[in-house]
TrEMBL record:
One of the Pfam families matching this protein, by short name: V-SNARE_C
Biological role: Involved in transport from the ER to the Golgi apparatus as well as in intra-Golgi transport. It belongs to a super-family of proteins called t-SNAREs or soluble NSF (N-ethylmaleimide-sensitive factor) attachment protein receptor. May play a protective role against hydrogen peroxide induced cytotoxicity under glutathione depleted conditions in neuronal cells by regulating the intracellular ROS levels via inhibition of p38 MAPK (MAPK11, MAPK12, MAPK13 and MAPK14). Participates in docking and fusion stage of ER to cis-Golgi transport.
Stated family: Belongs to the GOSR1 family.
Entry-linked InterPro entries: Golgi_SNAP_su1 (IPR023601)
Species of the source: Climacteris rufus (rufous treecreeper)
Keyword Transmembrane helix listed: yes
Listed name of the protein: Golgi SNAP receptor complex member 1
Subcellular location field: Golgi apparatus membrane
């Protein structure tokens, strides 16, 4: 029953984290589009934003789900350590460790995505403030010559290039982290397989004997087929 509850919470967390990641990814691009539509910047970019409210709501929901899953893991740990289940202790500990690893991965992914979102929001807030200062300077001083416009366009191009480079670096870092995580999972599986193989040497010996017998049977069958083929050829030519 505890495993069933844990799996249900893990499925809910997986869906929530996917939606949370998509929200954080689309945050910067939507802010750029909003700045292009409203060049006057008469209202703050971030205050009262629906995306910010959605971010806060989803973060609270994910934290609640993580807390529930932590509680379920603690209950499973209490069950495995209780008396009356000594024969199943190894299998239960393996299951508990797997659920703990999943919880740790989800917690790490949530905090990383949240930190990225907060960093993007802080950067967007700073850029929005700079843009408002530039616009106020232009309207207050009345400077609207060709050179100023060229400088502003060049600044916009540089800022867009910087944003694209940062997004590319972020994607590369995420890919590297995923590959590192997959390598760690493969190493963990390999170590567990080696542990099982060391625990059951008789199984390895039996498998080796079976393989040797299969090779011997294959050689005998091949020899019989070859002799029969030679006899058939001799019979056919004589």
């Amino acid at each position: 029953d505890l495993r069933k509850q844990a799996r249900q919470l893990e499925n809910e967390l997986d869906l929530k984290l996917v939606s949370f990641s998509k929200l954080c990814t689309s945050y910067s691009s939507s802010r750029d589009g909003r700045r292009d539509r409203y060049s006057s910047d008469t209202t703050p970019l971030l205050n009262g934003s629906s995306q910010d409210r959605m971010f806060e709501t989803m973060a609270v929901e994910i934290e609640q789900l993580l807390g529930k899953l932590t509680g379920i893991n603690d209950k499973m740990a209490e069950y495995t350590s209780s008396a009356g289940v000594p024969a199943l202790n190894a299998a239960l500990m393996h299951t508990l460790q797997r659920h703990r690893d999943i919880l740790q991965d989800y917690t790490h992914e949530f905090h990383k995505t949240k930190a990225n979102f907060l960093a993007i929001r802080e950067r967007e807030n700073l850029l929005g403030s700079v843009r408002k200062d530039i616009e106020s300077y232009k309207s207050g001083s009345g400077v609207n010559n060709r050179r100023t416009e060229l400088f502003l366009k060049e600044h916009e191009h540089l800022r867009n290039s910087d944003r694209l480079i940062e997004e590319t670096i972020s994607i590369a870092m995420a890919t590297k982290e995923n590959m590192t995580s997959q390598r760690g999972m493969l190493k963990s599986i390999q170590s567990k397989m080696n542990t099982l193989a060391n625990r059951f040497p008789a199984v390895n010996s039996l498998i080796q004997r079976i393989n040797l017998r299969k090779r011997r049977d294959s050689l005998i069958l091949g020899g019989i087929i070859g002799v029969c083929t030679i006899l058939l050829l001799l019979y056919a030519f004589h």
